[in-house]
Amino acid sequence: MTVEDLSRSWLDHLAVERGLSANTLSNYRRDVQRYVDWLSAVGIDSLQDVTEKHVESYVADLRSGRSCGTPLAASSAGRALVVARGLHRFALAEGAIAVDVTAEISPPATGQHLPDTLSIAEVEKLLTAVGEGESAGPLEIRDRALLELLYGTGARISEVIGLTVDDVAEMDGYIRVRGKGNKERIVPVGGAATEALEAYVVRARPVLATGASHALFLNTRGNTLSRQSAWAVIKSAAQRAGISKDISPHTLRHSYATHLLEGGADVRSVQELLGHSSVTTTQIYTHVTADNLRSVWRESHPRA
Q1: Which of 21, 191, 200, 270 is found 20 to 30 A from 1 (Cα to Cα)?
Q2: Architecture of domain 3-93
Q3: Where exactly does CATH 1.10.150 map onto the chain?
Q4: 120-300 maps to CATH 3.90.420.10
Q5: Which residue would you say has higher pLDDT here, 41 or 116?
Q6: How far is Cα 240 from Cα 232, in angstroms, rounded to an integer?
Q7: Burial code of 172-182, b = ≥16 C-beta within 10 A, e = fewer?
């Protein structure tokens, strides 16, 4: 049975057996037709061929306006997902499909507040507010490496303080980070961050490494640098740089993504670099290889 046939049967089911109002049915008919049209546009005419990624991409297209001309609000895209899910549940109950691929897909988040973004000039001021060179002490060298890595990779603060020495050994232009769900990804690192990291590993970390910790970033007691201490490093650097914006570790992550996009990087690659997993919120559509990511990053990031 085609998607068109199933959608008509489902609408009939809603009208006859569920007794939905004419207005509600009209809204359902509009949303399910939009879903059917989207599937047709990507070459799918059977719900058996729909994957979870297809549905996530559909919702992401609604949010971006790619499929309907005008971007839909998160609430409207969420309602469209409810309709698509209803169709799949009906198909499952009718035996037309074996698995409901919409079951685990979350609706787009609403009301999310994006942190302030630093301009490239502000990032430069922030980074240079931390001393470097031969006169810099171990903590200054550590703090500079921390800031360069946060902005240079867009990694979450938890990912950066979770790095071990092995994760950056023989980097060859990449580091390995562990994100949410302990999922690993390879992230390209440019010259500025690499230089700062090498200075830290060679000159500063041996001074701080009084214990047996394998963590990359250490505090003065030789233990893993805490999230709170890393946050304090950023706040202190912002104050010295004269930046009045409400800055946090996520500000650097958001600035990283913004500057890449402004530099011409495509959204898919940026979101892969950030390590997001949900297409409904990150709009990941395709797998991107590490080499492609590095190419995009090198061409777009101001400190590559």
Answers
A1: 21
A2: Orthogonal Bundle (1.10)
A3: 3-93
A4: no
A5: 41
A6: 12
A7: eebbbbbbeee
Token pair 């301009």: residue:
119
Q: What φ, ψ does residue 264 adopt, rounded to 5°?
A: 105, 5
Q: What is the mean pLDDT of residues 94-98?
A: 92
> Both tokens of residue 54?
């297809």
Catalytic center residues = 156, 180, 250, 253, 276, 285
- How confident is the model over 206-230, as a mean pLDDT? 90
